[in-house]
Amino acid sequence: MVLCLLSTLFISCAQNKLDANAIHEKALTIDTHCDTPMRFTRSSFDIGEEHQAPKSRVDLPRMKKGGLDAIFFAIFTIQRERTPANYEEAYHLAHQMIDSTQKAVAQHKELASLAVNASDAVSIAKQGKRAIYLGMENGFPLGKDITRVEEFYKRGVRYITLAHTKNNDICDSSTDKKGAEHNGLSSFGKQVVNEMNRLGMLIDVSHISDKAFYDVLEESEVPVFASHSSVRSVCDHARNMDDAMIKALAKNGGVIQICILGSYIHPEDTTSENYLQKEALRLKYNNWNYTSDEQRKQAWGEWRGLNEKYPPVLPTIADAVDHIDYVVNLVGVDYVGIGSDFDGGGGLKDCVDVADFPKITQELVKRGYSEEDIVKIWGGNFIRVYNAAEAAVKS
User: 377 lies in which domain range?
Assistant: First the structure.
């Protein structure tokens, strides 16, 4: 009898694993945010070679291993003082990152292709390749020039995260220690939102203040999304979205892409050596207000060194799926997805890189999510929003 029960249990577990793998393979899987392009401008990093976490979390071989069909590479620029010189530096850096990303993908055209339309994810996946989309994290490279929205759109950028960790000319940030500057979206920010609507460019509300979020919903004529944000009721962090915001986003038809960065998934242990040392580092670099690119590189090198010397205690996939559960219970399964923030801080104890993504599907299956639900979470919900933005393009 015991042997029979054990045999039944073994078969059941094996079947669950088989089902999870089959579902993961069938789903159109999309990660809506990673910061890998920063590597292309600073080193000889080859995206066609397999690397090791935690120093690198995304490359084409590991995307294939993890069954990841498409990913958004962030064209990221740090927010600096808004001077003409810094505007130009950010503008040129953004173009440099686009150039280097396009070059990196072109060197491995048998493995990946650049994507610009929602439908490209499916067509590229059918070729057995990875679809590489471009997003812009922080609207700082726009400066105060509205024509740059279309300029970057023509270069392949398909979403703009309106702000980053500090206020810019578009809107207030959720984490600027100086507080609100525009009381949400600025007048220029409203122009940016309208221009993005006109072009069919996705509006990303991650990183922006709560008031700016509501201003964007009021201004935009199409659904918007959060490329990498989690749930404030589960983890009380300003970067996460509260219940009212998630409900408003769902009513708008948008989607929140759960970010698997540790401090957005579970509150940090503020007594740990890792946390204390990083706080000291933050103060050393004046709240990350870098005076030069060299200083930024130095700071990131010290940050990585701290993680090696004092390894952080990271949350798990189960903790991250708690955020998915919360959104599903609050507004339904049609309004949640996944944006890892890999190579920009993202990573869990048991999900260290894109090769581990099938484990998330296994956890979803374990919790009773249907194949239809999982297909929505891994890409279907986001593609719905993307299609809506494209369909509303103004001629």
Answer: 26-269+313-391
- Check residues 287 and 346 and name the one with the higher pLDDT: 346
Q: Which residues pair with 159 in a beta bridge?
A: 202
pLDDT digits (tens, 9 = 90+) for 212-238: 999 999 999 999 999 999 999 999 999
Q: C-alpha distances in angstroms, 259 versus 115, 121, 227, 265?
A: 22, 21, 8, 8
Residue 286 CA to residue 28 CA, distance in Å, equals 42
Query: CB under 8 Å, gap of 24 or more: what pairs does 92-95 form?
Result: 93/41, 93/141, 94/136, 94/141, 94/152, 95/155
> In this structure, is residue 5 part of a structural domain?
no
Kindly write down the DSSP assignment for every residue of 100-117, as one continuous string.
HHHHHHHTTTTTEEE--S
> pTM for this one?
0.92
What residue has token string 């922006």? 208
Would you say 75 and 37 are in contact if contact means Cβ atoms under 8 Å apart?
A: yes
Angle subtended at Cα 62 by Cα 61 and Cα 66, rounded to the nearest 5 degrees: 125
- Using the predicted structure, report yes or no on whether residue 394 has a pLDDT greater than 70: no
Once rounded to an integer, what is the mean pLDDT over residues 184-192? 98
CATH number for the domain including 60?
Answer: 3.20.20.140
pLDDT tens for each residue of 332-341? 999 999 999 9
Within a domain: 283 = no
Q: Strand, helix or coil at 274?
A: helix
Confidence class of residue 281 from pLDDT cuts 50, 70 and 90?
A: confident
Which amino acid, 70?
A
Q: Which helix (H) or strand (E) holds 258?
A: strand 255-258
Domain membership of residue 17 (yes or no) is no
- DSSP bridge partners of 284: none
Question: What domain count does the chain have?
Answer: 1
Question: Is it the case that residue 97 has pLDDT exceeding 90?
Answer: yes
Dist CA 171 CA 181 (whole Å): 8
> Percent of the chain at pLDDT above 90?
81
Alpha carbon distance 42, 167 (integer Å): 26
Q: Tell whether 191 is covered by a domain.
A: yes
* CA 234/CA 12 separation, integer angstroms: 31
pLDDT at 293 over 80: no
Residue among 346, 358, 363, 379 at smallest CA distance from 260: 346
Residue in the structure block whose two tokens are 């639900």: 373
